[in-house]
């Protein structure tokens, strides 16, 4: 235990180890940043499940809608338990520091890549005090935030509900009072009195991120202007995870049942034989805004389900020990950050119903957006002003989510319309139509960030619809990029949106790869050089001049001005699949810019892929390291694969095979710049990166 | 330590914990059989790598061959390190007893499924004595094999080569003397004298399987008639795993280089930046059959590589600490079993060069074939006479492997022919052609087991080429099945060959599955009911009579005669993906026969999949359990999927959409019977299973 007189230091403190906090911790672990993540609870906390729609059909009487739009992504939607998601994160954070299976790695060699301290969740640790020194808040060398952390006993860290013998599924439901409130009084009740000084430590840090849920302590500590704005509805829903015993024919499909008078029910098939039921509890009174929680038990929830599903039967033997109930409310905070020193993410800054499966998703996306920015600022690579883009980008998404949820909750919970004249009822046609339209948002593939220092606005056109664009507030404090995009060069790489993935073949071995697999989340920006047609049977020797001229400029002018990435725990530069921690060190640290060349294979070449050798290309496309040799993993060709069909990458990216394009991609995979391959485009690349990155030889290097 | 006077008992002892031994242990763990697996070495043993061809092209000067035949399998070939394969096995064996991540499972409930003892590798344990009581060898209740196991000290269990400071990559190379020989003398040298009685235990068991490698102690213990037969060649090859620093253009392709006079070299790209080089060592003398091992060091091997690859350069900074050398030899044992009590598998009974990447593969296939047979006999489900099929099936494969290897080694190691008149040289055209033809064998997709009690011979035709059929010796002691197949009913399900996998949609939720995913290795036989077209827009109500009539016979007549599967550690009947150990118990144990219905969706139905409800089908196709409800995971339809294309299963299985077929599949996924869906086929199903399985109510139940 640290003495309160002596403050320790760390770059970042993450408060709360749910999916949002763990996503952030994973970024910082990958980037080798010194950080801590604390959670006031012990490990015993029961998990609340969230869900995503799976790939089956949405079915209601006489209507069936296919779930998901074909071709939107190569991945399908799945139902994933929050506990499993958290386990993936915990494992990935651990693996960031090197392999643990002892196979294929020289473990001892990884030691020099490690930061002083590995990030691991510190449980039973609760913040009790937070203050920001506004004088030093902009200073990259300062530690302007002071946090007091209290170390709890096992009893203090165990929720009251867990201590009783009565199973109470309402723990963490929003029908409950904030669970923080149980901690201090009980400690006092134990006779320990106010927290003893030796149970507290003081930490000075650069940044604090509150990922501490709907009852966020961090948010409250920032003052009343951080309160969330919005309302609770009168709709109460119960949730039950069971192995159903039923004759209802569509129990393994995602099914929405609107009964005439008993309320609505949603069936979400889960893994194995489990099914999640969302059941509207019409018999629970919401009276004066306070719900009588004592009414809500599994027996009462299944009874409501039986009424709604009649004349079919439904019962269960196995319950997954997970049931809860909640009151639908939609609220969002006005501020996502204070002085760009303290940030709020996930439920701490926006809450809504879980109906669209966006709770865990949007929370993780918040910190996926914030993590690389914070990490690269801590490493002295990114300009601190870029941190303003977090609120700009994520508040707009939160508002879109609330609007989406508001519309959907009404459709889910409302009484079905009796006929076309029944104006207060919900039209079942409108419901099915809204569901169909929702996929771009629920998959997050459709979200678009507005122009900023990270996203160079197109000069030629707006190039694509921005979803919910009218919700976006003007953010005067966020710098605009000096660079400009030319959106016509790639009709599918849209600035502010996710860079799409298509199959290409690796030049060195003709093996097919999804281009995303070559763009791991390692904190690097990427310049994807769509070099056009480099080789053809009619052109001998192949026309390599254009990409090689660009190579000379990249290697000779651009890269020497930009920072490099070391030190990092795992250097994805060393291995194909992006698995961190392989442990072999390159002699030279990688640049912050990863350059990938994707050329168009001429269609008249038949089976031959390599009509020129990799070494005919400028070295910037196959970086040579004295210890590791050439990098064979940076040049790809768009052509048909022997085993795996044709990715048609140029066609799918909307890029002309003769003209080509340069696409700048942010570390989170969003398109930041689209410009020309030729000299006219080069200054745009420089301007874009200069607005974002600190110059080389800064103090962080 | 067990006293030598008191023998303990176990059903199976596996000697050797390499891939073959671990594959066997995994089967027995999954089936809940009481077994032990011992290995004389500690965990520190360096791993020898084996390889499979990957999906890139085989390249030699002016010639390029695509590696692998498109469409043969939905999987690609990969290069996989033996150490990683062993790690997968160790994890899978552990997971057989229930989940370890604590997520989504009620762990405490799994307890009743566990056998008394979990299988885990016992290291530093060496067999010293083995005898079979021939009187009781056929008695299922007896423990006819006596084994003495000696528990070694850490020093004894560490190979001499590991104790010295000189790195010696020849450990476990076949250029070395047997490494067993170092153990006993050193123990005596330590002053401990002969093994003390308290270091030994005596175990009585039903079966022993020797998976203890080329110098197999088990094989020697069985006597000289078990010696392997065959020869060593004059070819010496070195193996080196490095990150190459080279200007050779095809270093990331699987490349074969025949130099004019300096020998041959093969490039096998591995994971990350690693490359494996197989290098012919022409300067090592083989003189009087003994190789001068002291000549062979990494420097010498890379020097040989430089000569062969000239004028290109090759060097390295990182070596994967794995190098070795071996002399090519091809030998196979005459007997794979003694009295069906003691079995030999893998290198213990066949050795060959690693050139075709078949060393680890064929060894694992041996025990994949033996494991379920042994496990089900121990559980009283399978007739013990079925054990004779192990030698019948696997000896034929071993002989094919030796013949294949003999041909390939000559092609790899021989001097290239100067011209067409150079008869002692190797024709490069012949080499490329042989490589192309080898895929059916190296992928194991093409292997075919001959008729036996497990494989009901077709009466109508031979239905397909049997590879190496003329190598198969008549095995008089193996029973032939009383049942007969009608091969014309399915032109792609060929008896004795692997049941192929194609995509079908699950009736309950229209989700696409590869049919193999519904056929996990859980020890159960499968009856795949290709029920033909059950529904069509023109037939109302749908024509379910045929499959429901079969259902009545299956549920009323066949299944009650056959054994059930419990107890097992994980019951794959409970969950979709075959993941063992979910921990929820069905009230009723599953039958030894798993019934899957695959019907043909009528082509005129448009987007509708389910024109009838699952509950319209006989219950045998959706087994009902009072605790778990209906099983929604047994009925599938052949039709186009919304997201994932059209599996065209009936077309690909070569089954008529009107006629249908019944296909019986062994627990290892091989086709055992093809017969008619109608009454004429039912007696064949009965006869096939009666020849293999003990009747119900046997002592094992």
Automatic annotation (TrEMBL), chains A, B:
Q: Which Pfam families match?
A: FAD_binding_3, Phe_hydrox_dim
Q: Which residues form the Phenol hydroxylase-like C-terminal dimerisation domain?
A: 447-695
Domain of life of the source = Eukaryota
What is the designated name of this protein?
A: Phenol 2-monooxygenase
Transmembrane portions of the chain: 12-33
Family named by the database record = Belongs to the PheA/TfdB FAD monooxygenase family.
Q: Which UniProt keywords apply?
A: FAD, Flavoprotein, Membrane, Oxidoreductase, Transmembrane, Transmembrane helix
Query: Which CDD domains is this protein grouped with?
Result: PHOX_C
Q: Where is the FAD-binding domain?
A: 9-404
Q: Does the keyword Membrane apply?
A: yes
């Amino acid at each position: 235990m640290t003495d309160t007189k002596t403050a320790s230091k760390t770059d970042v403190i993450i408060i709360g180890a749910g999916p949002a906090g763990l996503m952030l911790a994973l970024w910082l672990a990958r980037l080798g940043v010194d950080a801590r993540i604390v959670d006031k609870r012990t490990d015993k906390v029961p998990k609340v499940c969230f869900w995503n729609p799976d790939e089956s059909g949405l079915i209601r009487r006489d209507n069936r809608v296919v779930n998901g739009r074909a071709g939107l992504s190569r991945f399908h939607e799945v139902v994933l338990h929050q506990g499993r998601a958290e386990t993936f994160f915990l494992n990935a954070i651990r693996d960031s520091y090197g392999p643990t299976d002892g196979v294929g790695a020289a473990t001892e060699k990884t030691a020099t890549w490690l930061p002083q301290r590995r990030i691991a969740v510190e449980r039973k640790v609760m913040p009790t005090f937070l203050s920001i020194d506004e004088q030093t808040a902009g200073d990259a060398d300062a530690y302007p935030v002071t946090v007091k952390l209290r170390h709890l006993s096992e009893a203090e860290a165990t929720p009251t509900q867990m201590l009783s013998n009565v199973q109470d599924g309402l723990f963490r439901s929003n029908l409950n009072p904030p669970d923080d409130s149980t901690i201090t009084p009980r400690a006092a009740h134990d006779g320990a009195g106010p927290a003893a000084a030796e149970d507290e430590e003081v930490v000075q840090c650069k940044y604090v991120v509150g990922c501490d849920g709907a009852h966020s302590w961090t948010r409250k500590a920032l003052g009343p202007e951080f309160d969330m704005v919005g309302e609770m509805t009168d709709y109460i829903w119960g949730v039950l995870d069971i192995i159903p015993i039923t004759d209802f024919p569509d129990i393994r499909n995602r099914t929405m049942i609107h009964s005439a008078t008993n309320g609505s029910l949603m069936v979400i098939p889960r893994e194995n034989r489990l099914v999640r039921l969302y059941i509207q509890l019409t018999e629970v009174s919401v009276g004066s805004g306070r719900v009588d929680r004592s009414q809500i038990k599994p027996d009462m929830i299944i009874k409501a389900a039986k009424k709604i599903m009649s004349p079919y039967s439904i019962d269960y033997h196995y319950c997954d020990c997970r049931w809860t109930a909640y009151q639908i409310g939609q609220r969002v905070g006005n501020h996502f950050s204070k002085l760009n020193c303290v940030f709020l993410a996930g439920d701490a800054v926006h809450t809504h119903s879980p109906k669209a499966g966006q709770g865990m998703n949007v929370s993780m996306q918040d910190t996926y957006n914030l993590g690389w920015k914070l990490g690269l600022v801590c490493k002295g690579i990114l300009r601190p002003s870029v941190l303003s883009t977090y609120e700009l980008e994520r508040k707009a998404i939160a508002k879109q989510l609330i609007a989406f949820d508001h519309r959907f909750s009404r459709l889910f919970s409302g009484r079905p319309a009796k006929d076309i004249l029944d104006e207060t009822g919900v039209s079942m046609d409108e419901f099915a139509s809204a569901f169909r339209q929702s996929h771009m948002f629920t998959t997050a593939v459709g979200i678009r960030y507005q122009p900023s220092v990270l996203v160079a606005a197109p000069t030629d056109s707006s190039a694509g619809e921005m979803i919910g664009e009218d919700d976006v507030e003007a953010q005067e404090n966020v710098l605009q990029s000096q660079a400009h995009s030319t959106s016509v060069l790639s009709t599918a790489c849209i600035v502010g949106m996710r860079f799409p993935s298509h199959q290409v073949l690796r030049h060195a071995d003709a093996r097919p790869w999804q281009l995303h697999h070559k763009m791991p989340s390692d904190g690097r920006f990427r310049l994807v050089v769509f070099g056009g047609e480099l080789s053809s049977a009619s052109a001998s020797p192949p026309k390599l001049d254009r990409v090689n001229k660009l190579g000379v400029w990249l290697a000779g002018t651009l890269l020497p001005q930009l920072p490099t990435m070391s030190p990092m725990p795992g250097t994805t530069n060393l291995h194909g699949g992006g698995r961190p921690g392989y442990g072999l060190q390159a002699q030279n640290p990688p640049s912050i810019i990863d350059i990938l060349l994707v050329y168009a294979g001429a269609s008249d070449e038949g089976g031959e892929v390599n009509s020129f050798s990799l070494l005919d290309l400028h070295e910037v496309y196959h970086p040579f390291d004295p210890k590791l040799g050439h990098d064979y993993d940076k040049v790809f060709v768009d052509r048909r694969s022997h085993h795996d069909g044709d990715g048609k990458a140029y066609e799918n990216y909307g890029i002309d095979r003769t003209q080509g394009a340069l696409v700048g991609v942010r570390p989170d995979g969003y398109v930041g710049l689209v410009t020309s391959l030729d000299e006219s485009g080069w200054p745009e690349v420089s301007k874009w990166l200069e607005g974002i990155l600190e110059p080389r030889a800064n103090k962080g290097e």
